[in-house]
Design goal:
three-stranded antiparallel β-sheet; 30% strand
Amino acid sequence: MTVPGASEHQIGLALDIVCNDYMSLDEGFGDTKAGKWLAANSCRFGFILRYPKGREDITGIEYEPWHFRYVGFPHSMIIAEKEFTLEEYTEYIKTFRQECSLRYSHKGIAAEIFYAPAETEISVNNAVCQVSGNNTDGFVVTQWRVNNA
Protein backbone atom coordinates (compact mmCIF):
# COMPACT_ATOMS: atom_id res chain seq x y z
CA MET A 1 0.00 0.00 0.00
CA THR A 2 1.34 3.43 -0.91
CA VAL A 3 1.29 6.51 1.26
CA PRO A 4 -1.55 8.83 0.12
CA GLY A 5 -0.24 11.55 -2.21
CA ALA A 6 2.97 9.64 -3.01
CA SER A 7 1.87 7.00 -5.49
CA GLU A 8 3.74 6.52 -8.75
CA HIS A 9 0.60 7.78 -10.50
CA GLN A 10 0.47 11.01 -8.53
CA ILE A 11 4.12 11.82 -9.17
CA GLY A 12 3.62 11.21 -12.90
CA LEU A 13 5.75 8.09 -13.38
CA ALA A 14 3.11 5.38 -13.77
CA LEU A 15 -0.07 4.65 -15.66
CA ASP A 16 -2.67 1.95 -15.75
CA ILE A 17 -3.44 0.50 -19.17
CA VAL A 18 -6.52 -1.41 -20.31
CA CYS A 19 -7.83 -2.26 -23.77
CA ASN A 20 -11.22 -2.10 -25.48
CA ASP A 21 -11.83 -5.84 -25.04
CA TYR A 22 -10.71 -5.94 -21.39
CA MET A 23 -11.30 -2.86 -19.28
CA SER A 24 -10.89 -4.32 -15.79
CA LEU A 25 -7.91 -3.60 -13.58
CA ASP A 26 -7.35 -7.20 -12.55
CA GLU A 27 -4.98 -10.08 -13.22
CA GLY A 28 -6.95 -11.15 -16.30
CA PHE A 29 -5.48 -8.23 -18.25
CA GLY A 30 -2.13 -10.05 -18.24
CA ASP A 31 -3.66 -12.85 -20.33
CA THR A 32 -4.99 -10.53 -23.05
CA LYS A 33 -3.17 -9.91 -26.34
CA ALA A 34 -2.58 -6.29 -25.27
CA GLY A 35 -1.34 -7.29 -21.80
CA LYS A 36 1.12 -9.79 -23.25
CA TRP A 37 2.37 -7.31 -25.85
CA LEU A 38 2.88 -4.58 -23.24
CA ALA A 39 4.72 -6.92 -20.88
CA ALA A 40 7.07 -7.94 -23.71
CA ASN A 41 7.54 -4.59 -25.46
CA SER A 42 7.03 -1.68 -23.05
CA CYS A 43 10.76 -1.74 -22.23
CA ARG A 44 11.51 -0.49 -25.77
CA PHE A 45 9.71 2.74 -24.84
CA GLY A 46 11.22 3.23 -21.38
CA PHE A 47 8.47 1.50 -19.37
CA ILE A 48 8.47 -1.59 -17.14
CA LEU A 49 5.73 -3.79 -15.76
CA ARG A 50 6.02 -2.44 -12.25
CA TYR A 51 4.54 -5.30 -10.22
CA PRO A 52 5.32 -8.61 -11.97
CA LYS A 53 3.74 -11.94 -11.07
CA GLY A 54 5.61 -13.95 -8.48
CA ARG A 55 7.67 -10.98 -7.26
CA GLU A 56 5.32 -9.77 -4.55
CA ASP A 57 7.85 -10.62 -1.84
CA ILE A 58 10.25 -8.08 -3.41
CA THR A 59 7.87 -5.30 -4.49
CA GLY A 60 5.48 -5.58 -1.56
CA ILE A 61 2.57 -5.24 -4.03
CA GLU A 62 0.47 -7.96 -5.64
CA TYR A 63 0.77 -8.67 -9.38
CA GLU A 64 -0.68 -5.79 -11.42
CA PRO A 65 -0.38 -6.56 -15.16
CA TRP A 66 -1.96 -3.20 -16.03
CA HIS A 67 0.47 -0.99 -14.05
CA PHE A 68 3.44 0.35 -16.02
CA ARG A 69 6.16 2.61 -14.67
CA TYR A 70 8.43 4.91 -16.65
CA VAL A 71 12.11 4.39 -15.81
CA GLY A 72 13.60 5.52 -19.12
CA PHE A 73 15.90 3.91 -21.61
CA PRO A 74 18.29 2.06 -21.18
CA HIS A 75 17.15 1.22 -17.65
CA SER A 76 13.92 -0.37 -18.91
CA MET A 77 15.87 -2.60 -21.31
CA ILE A 78 18.30 -3.76 -18.63
CA ILE A 79 15.45 -4.46 -16.19
CA ALA A 80 13.66 -6.52 -18.86
CA GLU A 81 16.77 -8.41 -19.99
CA LYS A 82 17.77 -9.31 -16.43
CA GLU A 83 14.15 -9.88 -15.33
CA PHE A 84 14.63 -7.52 -12.39
CA THR A 85 12.02 -5.69 -10.40
CA LEU A 86 12.69 -1.96 -9.93
CA GLU A 87 13.80 -2.73 -6.38
CA GLU A 88 16.34 -5.29 -7.60
CA TYR A 89 17.61 -2.96 -10.30
CA THR A 90 18.11 -0.14 -7.81
CA GLU A 91 20.28 -2.43 -5.67
CA TYR A 92 22.13 -3.79 -8.72
CA ILE A 93 23.07 -0.30 -9.91
CA LYS A 94 24.58 0.45 -6.51
CA THR A 95 27.33 -2.06 -7.33
CA PHE A 96 28.62 0.21 -10.13
CA ARG A 97 30.64 3.36 -9.53
CA GLN A 98 32.01 5.92 -11.96
CA GLU A 99 35.39 4.16 -12.10
CA CYS A 100 33.72 0.86 -13.01
CA SER A 101 30.37 1.66 -14.61
CA LEU A 102 27.77 -0.61 -16.15
CA ARG A 103 28.11 -0.37 -19.93
CA TYR A 104 25.07 -0.93 -22.11
CA SER A 105 24.76 -0.64 -25.89
CA HIS A 106 21.71 -0.86 -28.13
CA LYS A 107 21.33 0.06 -31.81
CA GLY A 108 24.34 2.38 -31.94
CA ILE A 109 23.70 4.15 -28.66
CA ALA A 110 25.97 3.36 -25.73
CA ALA A 111 25.42 4.25 -22.11
CA GLU A 112 27.58 4.09 -19.04
CA ILE A 113 25.54 3.85 -15.85
CA PHE A 114 26.70 4.16 -12.28
CA TYR A 115 25.53 4.96 -8.78
CA ALA A 116 26.72 8.06 -6.95
CA PRO A 117 25.99 8.24 -3.23
CA ALA A 118 24.47 11.52 -2.06
CA GLU A 119 27.11 14.17 -1.31
CA THR A 120 29.45 12.74 -4.00
CA GLU A 121 31.11 14.89 -6.67
CA ILE A 122 31.28 13.45 -10.17
CA SER A 123 32.75 14.57 -13.48
CA VAL A 124 31.03 13.69 -16.76
CA ASN A 125 33.79 14.58 -19.27
CA ASN A 126 31.75 16.27 -22.03
CA ALA A 127 29.20 13.46 -22.18
CA VAL A 128 25.46 14.01 -22.36
CA CYS A 129 24.17 12.71 -19.07
CA GLN A 130 21.07 12.21 -16.96
CA VAL A 131 21.09 12.25 -13.19
CA SER A 132 18.14 10.72 -11.37
CA GLY A 133 17.61 10.43 -7.65
CA ASN A 134 17.00 6.89 -6.44
CA ASN A 135 14.60 8.16 -3.73
CA THR A 136 16.72 6.80 -0.89
CA ASP A 137 20.40 7.59 -0.69
CA GLY A 138 21.96 8.68 -3.95
CA PHE A 139 21.76 9.11 -7.69
CA VAL A 140 21.82 7.03 -10.84
CA VAL A 141 24.01 8.69 -13.47
CA THR A 142 23.61 7.74 -17.12
CA GLN A 143 26.21 9.02 -19.59
CA TRP A 144 25.33 8.72 -23.29
CA ARG A 145 27.74 8.05 -26.13
CA VAL A 146 27.17 7.45 -29.83
CA ASN A 147 28.99 4.40 -31.20
CA ASN A 148 31.09 5.29 -34.25
CA ALA A 149 30.63 1.97 -36.00
